[in-house]
């Protein structure tokens, strides 16, 4: 069965960077894009960017352009989302999800930005 | 950035029918498909309805979707206690080149 397993919770200081991983299994990794979506406390789901797992092409939301980098390791069937220059308001649960219809989701990774 | 508007809450008693609206514009819902996600407390969202009214395998037929003009709706018939969750609509946004989500509707079973 399709599974997306993400890395664990992180606590970071303002200005630092965080890198969250998303390991895929149960399907051909390179056949689907992977999307990154975050959910801040009490806020709506917010799309951050996506990567074509086949050719590595990326597209980022303008809101996060310049701060977010999405990469993938094809042999490891894993995608990564790195967010830099962290601010308090980046405290959120970060999800990866498969394909543009977001048919499968990872369990989420809580990133807390605190001094 | 385009925004999809949902009511913050909806409720019903077991067995009732509950409907949730999602209002958009001609640049999103008006010419794009709409998907719905269910988020149970403390868990990741789950795809509930795609392409307006298609259900992934395993989703009960109590859940149905529809669209009219620039609005979409999710209906839950025969409401059950396990349906207590947050529900989000989403569609593709050409200006973002990515998905945009509604604010979510919390469904309470009385």
Describe the structure.
- The complex is a heterodimer of chains A (115) and B (110).
- Chain A has 115 residues and is mainly β.
- Chain A contains no helices and ten strands.
- In chain A, strand 4 and strand 5 form a beta hairpin.
- Chain A is globular.
- The model of chain A has no long low-confidence stretch (mean pLDDT 96).
- With 110 residues, chain B is mainly beta.
- Chain B has strands spanning 9-12, 18-23, 34-39, 46-49, 63-68, 71-76, 85-93, 98-101, 105-109.
- In chain B, the strands form two sheets. In chain B, strands 1, 3, 4, 7, 8 and 9 form a six-stranded mixed beta sheet that branches. Chain B has a three-stranded antiparallel beta sheet with strand order 2-6-5, with no helix packed on it.
- The model of chain B has no long low-confidence stretch (mean pLDDT 92).
- Chain A binds chain B through residues 35, 37, 44-47, 49-50, 59, 61-63, 95, 97, 100-108, and chain B through 1, 35, 37, 43-47, 50-51, 56, 88, 90, 92, 96-104.
């Amino acid at each position: 069965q399709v599974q997306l397993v993400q890395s664990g919770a992180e606590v970071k200081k303002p200005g630092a960077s965080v890198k969250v991983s998303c390991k895929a299994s149960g399907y051909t990794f390179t056949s689907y894009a992977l999307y990154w979506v975050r959910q801040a406390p009490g806020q709506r789901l917010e799309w951050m960017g996506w990567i074509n797992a086949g050719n590595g092409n990326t597209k980022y939301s303008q809101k996060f352009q310049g701060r977010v980098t999405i990469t993938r390791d094809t042999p490891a069937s894993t995608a990564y989302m790195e967010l830099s220059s962290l601010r308090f308001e980046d405290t959120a649960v970060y999800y990866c999800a498969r394909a543009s219809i977001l048919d499968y989701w990872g369990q989420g990774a809580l990133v807390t930005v605190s001094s | 950035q385009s925004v999809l508007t949902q009511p913050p809450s909806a409720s019903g008693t077991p067995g009732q029918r509950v409907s949730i609206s999602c209002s958009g514009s001609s640049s999103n819902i008006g010419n794009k498909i709409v998907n719905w996600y269910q988020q149970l407390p403390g868990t990741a969202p789950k795809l509930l309805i795609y392409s307006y009214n298609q259900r992934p395998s395993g989703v009960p037929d109590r859940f149905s979707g529809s669209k009219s003009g620039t609005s979409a709706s999710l209906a839950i018939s025969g409401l059950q206690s396990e349906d207590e969750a947050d529900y989000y609509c989403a569609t593709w946004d050409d200006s973002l080149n990515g998905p945009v989500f509604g604010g979510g509707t919390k469904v309470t079973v009385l």
